[in-house]
Amino acid sequence: MPQTFFVITGRARLQWGDVGLEGQLDWTGPAAWPGLAAGPVPSPRTAAAGSAAPAPRGQVLIGDFSREDADDYLARRLTRDGRPLIEPAIRAVIAERSHGLPLHLDLSAMRFLEIRRSGRTPQPDDFAADFPALVARTLQDLTPDERHVLRSVSLFDSFDLTLAAQAAGLTHEAPALRLTERPFVRENALSRWPFSLHALIRSTIRSADDQADDRWSPRDWDHAARRAFAALGGQWAAHSGRDRLLLTGALRQGLAIARDFRLDLDWLADATWAYVADEIWEPIALPAAPDPAGGPVPLATAAEALVETLSALARRQHEHRERTVTRLTAVVAADLLPADLTELAVYYLAKAHRDLGHATESRLGMQRVADGGGRLAPAARRGLAHLARLDGDFPAALQTAQSLGWEGRQHRVEGDVRWVQGDMTGAIAAYEQDRAQAEQHAVAGERATAQAQLAFATAFTDPDRAAVELELAEQLLAGVDLRATTITTRIAALIQDAGISGDIEDRAQRLRTEISVAGLNSAQLPALELALAFHHAVHDDRDGVTAALSRLHDLTQGGDRAYYSDIARFMADLPLAEPGSGARWLDGQQVTRDRWRALVTARADRLRAAR
C-alpha cells in the first residue's frame, strides 16, 4: 500500500519483524517488515551534530516524559474555552508522581474528570495515591509466569536474569527474558545488574491494591523476599576477589529486603565486614521505612539497626559528628545487633566521641571493644594509643603502638607519635611503611590516610617533596570518602606554603568553617592553628604567634592536645607558660624544642636563599 502511513499503538513492541517468525506466518520476518527488524528497540534519540543520521525505524517506544512535557500534556489533555482545565498545582503533583509514565498521566486525567462529575472540586491531595488500575493494565497482557516474575523483581532496585529467575523460584529464565522485553523494564548495559522496573510501576506493584486473579498473599511476598535475599547473597558469596560494585549493590538491596520483610541478617553480617575493611565508605543509605504516624521509625529489628549503623558510618563523612554520636548511640541502646556488629557500632561511636573531644566516653568505648577481643580489638587498641597521645603520654602511646601490628595500623600510630616530637624523619619512615602495608593488603582507605599523613609530615621539612606527596594524596582520596583525611591534606598545604603564601590566613579561615561544619573542631582545629603558628614563627611574627597560642589555649582547655601550645612555643623559641602541658616527651623537652625550632629556622633560611 504505497503512500500509506500506519500508526499502531500498544503496551508492548511489535514482533512481526523478528527473524524467529519468518516463514511461520504470512507477512512476517525482516523482509516483510524491514523497519521492525532491528531487534530490541532503543529509546528515541537525536543524532549528534555532524554525525550520521540513524537508520530509519518504523517502530519507536515512547519513553518517560520530562516534567515539562508532562505538564504540557496535562494542560492540553483537558481544556475549556482553550484554557487548561487542570490547574497548575494539580498538574505539578501528577507530573511528579507519574515519573514521566504516559499511562499514569492519562489515568490521572480520567480521575480528574470523575471527581468533577461527582460535584467536588479536585484537590492536589486527590492525586497523591497509586492507581490499582495501573497494575491491572500492566499485568493484563502478561502470561502467568511473567506476572510472577514481575512481582518478584519489584523487590529489587535492579536485577539480572539469574536474580529474576531465582527470586521467582523458577528453574528456567524464559519468562524473565520475555519480561525484560516489555517497555516498562529499563536496561543499562553498564550496570552491575542491567535491568530495572520503571520506578512508578515498581512502587505501584509493591503498594497498590492488587485485584488480579493471581494476586499474591502476604506469605507469597514473604517467600519471594526470602528467595530474592538468598539470591543476592549467593551472587556476592560466589564472587572471588574484590568487587566493590557488587558488594555495595548487594548490601544496599539486601538490607532493604531484610528490613522491609524482617529477615535475619545471614550473609549481610559478612558483607558488612567486607564493606568496612576497605574504609572507602560509599553511601549505603536506604529510603526511610514508612511510618504510619509520620514520625521517626524506632529500631525494631537487627536489619533496621544494621541499616542505621552503615548509614551513620557512611554519612559521618558529610554530617556533624554530633549527629553520628546520636545515631550510633541509638543503635547501641537498641541492642538488636549480634555481639560483633554491636562492637562495630561501639567502636565508631568511640571514634566520633574522640573527634568531638569527649575523651572519657571515647576511652570507655575503645576499652570495651579492646576487652572483647573481636575483629576490631586491634583497632580499639589503636584508639587507646591515640588517646594516650592526645593526653601527652607519648611513651605509653608508642609502647602500645609497637604491639598493634598491621591490623592495628602500628606504623601509622608510630608516625602520629613521632611527628609531634618534631622527629619528621621517623614519622615519614613510619607513614611510608604503613602506606606500603596498605598497598600490600589492598586497603584503599588506609593507603589514602597514610599518604595524607606522609604529606603532612613532609610539608614541615621539604615543600618541594610535599607538593608531590600532596598530589598523590589527592589522587588516592578521589576514590574514597574520607572527610577528615581530606582536611589533613589542606592543612598540610598550608604548612607547605608557610612563610611563602600571603593568603594563608584567608585559606585558614575557610578551613575553620569546613572543620566546624564537619564537627571536627577538637580533632582538626588544633592542627590548623599549629600550622599557622609555624607560618608566623618562620616570619618571626610574634603577634601572629601570640594570636595562634591564644586560640590553641582555648581549643585545648579540656586537656587533649594541650602540648600543641608547647610545640608552638618551641617553634617561636618562647619559654613555656606555667605550669605547661605536662607532656612526657620521648627524648625530653629540650631535644623536642630544638627539633621544632630547627624546622622553623631551616624554612626561614630556605626562603632567604630563594630571594
Structure description:
The protein is built from 27 helices and four strands. The protein has 611 residues and is mainly α. The strands form two sheets. A two-stranded antiparallel ribbon has the order 1-2. Strands 3-4 form a two-stranded antiparallel ribbon. A hairpin with a 2-residue loop joins β1 (79-80) and β2. α5 (144-153) packs across α6 (161-168), α22 (483-496) runs antiparallel to α23 and α26 packs across α27. Residues 38-57 have low confidence and may be disordered.
Largest sheet, strands/sense/barrel: 2 strands, antiparallel
| Low-pLDDT residue intervals, each spanning 5 or more residues | 38-57
**Order of strands across the main sheet:** 1-2
How far apart the termini lie comes to 88 Å
Briefly summarize what is shown.
This protein is mainly alpha-helical.
Secondary structure layout:
Blueprint: H1 67-77, E1 79-80, E2 83-84, H2 88-98, H3 102-117, H4 132-139, H5 144-153, H6 161-168, H7 174-179, E3 185-187, E4 195-197, H8 199-207, H9 218-238, H10 244-261, H11 268-277, H12 302-315, H13 321-334, H14 339-355, H15 359-372, H16 377-390, H17 394-401, H18 410-419, H19 424-441, H20 444-461, H21 463-477, H22 483-496, H23 504-518, H24 521-538, H25 542-555, H26 563-572, H27 589-610
Antiparallel strand pairs: 1-2, 3-4
Question: What labels would you give this structure?
Answer:
59% helix, 27 helices, elongated, two-stranded antiparallel ribbon, mainly alpha, 611 residues
